[in-house]
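Today's session is about reading a structure prediction critically. Students often jump straight to the picture, but the first step is always the sequence itself: look for stretches that repeat, for charged clusters, for runs of hydrophobic residues. Only then move on to the predicted structure, which in these notes is written as discrete structure tokens rather than atom positions. Here is the chain we will use throughout the hour.
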Amino acid sequence: MNRQLVENILAVIKASTDKSVIVKGLTKLRTDVVKDKNGILLFREAGGVAPMVRFLSKPHEQILEVALSIMGNCCTDELSCKEALENKIFIPLATILKSIPNPLIQCRACRLLGNLAKVDANQLLSTHCPAIAQALCRIIEDASDVQTRMMAFRACRFLLANTQFMKHFLQSSGLTILLRILSATMKNESNDAEEKLLTDAQAPLKVGLKRNQHREKYFEEVARNLEGVRSDIFDHEVLKNSTRNSNAYIIPEERAALDLVCEILKCLLVISELQMSNVVWESLNRANCTLAPIVYFITDEKKNKHRSAALKILSNLSKNQGAFYILSSADSILAACELLVADEDLSESERRHCIHIISILSTDACNRSKIRRSGALRKFIAMIKDTGPPAEKASILNVLINFQYDNMSMDLMLREGLVLVLIKELNVYISSEEEFYKKKREEKLQSTKKRKLPDVVKEGKCKFAKVREETFFDSDSPSSSPRSYNGPSSPCSSSRSMSPVGSGYLYQPNQADSDEESYSPVCSDDEEEEDEQDTSSHLYNNPNASNNDHTIIMNLLDLAAHSEEDSILIEDEEEISQDVPAIKLPQLGNLPHNTIDVIDNLLFRVTCLVTKSNDLGKPETMNTLIKALNLFGVNTDFSGSLTNILLESQFFGNVIRQGISHQLYQLTKVKETSKDGFGFLDTLTSVGECNYGKEELARLLRSDDVISQKRAAITVGYLIRSKPLLYQFLNDGNALTLLLGIILSSRQDDFTAEAVDALTCMSRYTLGINVPQLNGDKRLDEYDEFVEDAGQSLHEHCDMRFVVHAPLRENEASTEGSESFECVEDDKNTTSTATTNVDFNKALLCSTSDVFNTMLNSDFREGKEGEIHLRNYTVSGLRYFLNLIVRKSKNLKYNIPPADKYSALLEAFEMSRIYIIPEMEQFVLQMLIALLDETNCLDVLEWSMKNYHVELTEMTINYYLCSSLSTEAKVNLFRTADYSTYSTEWFQMIMEAILARCRNGF
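Below is the predicted structure for this chain, in token form.
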């Protein structure tokens, strides 16, 4: 048929007043023109859309039926839809839906409405939204024709993209009607007959149960709200009939009913992605609506093509606050658990939806018992052990956190290896995220310095993001979650407010509110994509931010993108929409940053249990916790977890053998963790000084295993604070000899560093040994530096001189013009020496020291001809000594030699003693102590031993024991002293200095 003929037909029906002619013309157009795409294009170009819209206002059912059919076909074309909307088709269409009960007309009208909604639902609903929503709900409820209901459901599915329609649809009880129809369509009549026979046979029992039904409900509600209730008490009574009743519903065999079920599932899929208020769910509960027909599709049958859609519907619905009870009552938790446990071939999205459903419903104590009994808890542990997507592991961890107060579940998970699973994930995460978090901590430290925050702020608990979950449940509802944030009394509101069951001595950190990231474990198909900067910036969100910001209406499925070619008599089937692939958040490591806090909380809860898992005492557990403290800081539950492990005496032997005390001491060397590092050591001290700890240390010190002996001796140095007990271990237990033996051994290994640090820790913090030190910057500010200039005279009136005799070194260059050489014979040896003259003022020298006055003004050989001969000193030492005399005469502050001229300082000290200049001697002694380091310590020791200077000897011995040198430098310092002239005396004095301090503390 050509365009001219179409235009002629349109002209005839527009001009005719005879209804039979109009019907005949419309039928001709429907059968011969708008039967395919080309015909629809021809019809639109011939100007047929506008007349058809006008025909929809005709009060003649046959005309309306044919016109609606034509427009239904035409509106499969987008341009035709737009033209129809421009001609205000929604006005007559709304009237038809409201007023004409004819099923065929309703079917055609709903089909047309759906096609129009695919193109522009907003314009269609601009003025008639309430009327259209009410009309569709009425048609769905009252229509007996399956095809009419299907078209009504289809129209609703496309219109639900409009929030106003969604609102009026729910107000008209649309969701209630939809669920009732689904239940009625899938009802298994044969099962109803069996239940009736069973009821008749047990009539007396049924009456008794009905009479006590309120008591059972009360018990279930109490159990549901008791987060810490003992599951073993009510498990049997609550769960004895918890097996899914899979005979209540059945997939209909009739083709029409099956198509209706599929259309309802499509509609539910769209509705499930919208956020609904608690009022809607309360109305569903009052109407006794159930989601059991949807749950029926969750089976492990391979041919079940509706399983994915059903899982997605339930998963999406669980994001609504009020859906908790209706989901629980429909056995959705059992269905998800059974599917997860039974089927190994689930798709990633199906597995994700199962985990999500379990995650939301596991906040209920009864549901947690069902999860445990179904085997899903074991399955979760196995899934985390396997290599899987990080997002899936994060979701599972968010499920497991709900079981932290269920002791039976915790025991089961511990037997399945929960601790090692958590440690493995934490260790992998730390390895991949170490640089990231170091950078973040440095940035935070810099910003803190710029803002000059007070110390109180610096001790805040926001090292990393804290998991905060949305308030999913109404606290007044029987199905309210104990994890709800509505009430501070809930033990599960946060791990920061946990009040664990168990021993009272366990570490319980003061968990104040912190800057936490609002985070929900809810698994969604469409996740917002964030860049790395956005993710990190959320670490310090306002803790008072409203959770409502996270109640975002999800994006609707873009069902309008699918083209549809409807025929006149046969409507095309549409497949159930598939899952939209999730947009993954950018991951910097193995798990999302905020999931680490879940691991933190779970580990802390495990350590709070009365019965501790042996896995807590394994090396990888404690080592990983210490690494986490280094990475995240100590203001986390990792600190509490480690403290609880260290407090447990059963792990003390492992602490000794693994060298944990040495790792804890390393925390004290970092400013941010110093205080807490000492706290951990104090915790271990309380165990080490108890009877069990003392016996364990004594046993290992007496054992034949050399490694155990070394570890025990090192542990004694770190932990024992009681001086009588320390003396007993060091002297009687030979621990001090072992420590020094490890350090002085020619074979250097890991024990060497541990022994050095243990000796330093014991000397400084237990025995109180210290050496006065001057800060380097302050030293430079307070004292000028003496720069030696050999050609410069030290005094303007020089009338005497010092003659310095020094052995001539090979290839030594002359530094002064007054230098000469001489040979000195000593028995058979002839020594070549270089002499250097240093001029000075005789009067100044005599007025400074009586010794110099006697030497220069008497018959002393050294003073003849105004010369003083020095044979054991260097020119540098002499010139520095004379420089001090000059500065003293001018009342100037003393100066100090450069660091590489420490020997000059030591020579000046010796000369100030020989020539009896007390004030100068005291100053130089202070400088000797202040400038002491690893390069000159041995020289000072040997000089003090040689010259019997007790104060300087004691000072150098203390420096060996308590100096804060690097481990390598201190080992070299000890070994150099051990090979010196006074090695035997040095070793004995080291021993005596330590033991004497212990004895003094008795």
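Discussion point for the tutorial: The two ends are 118 Å apart (CA to CA).
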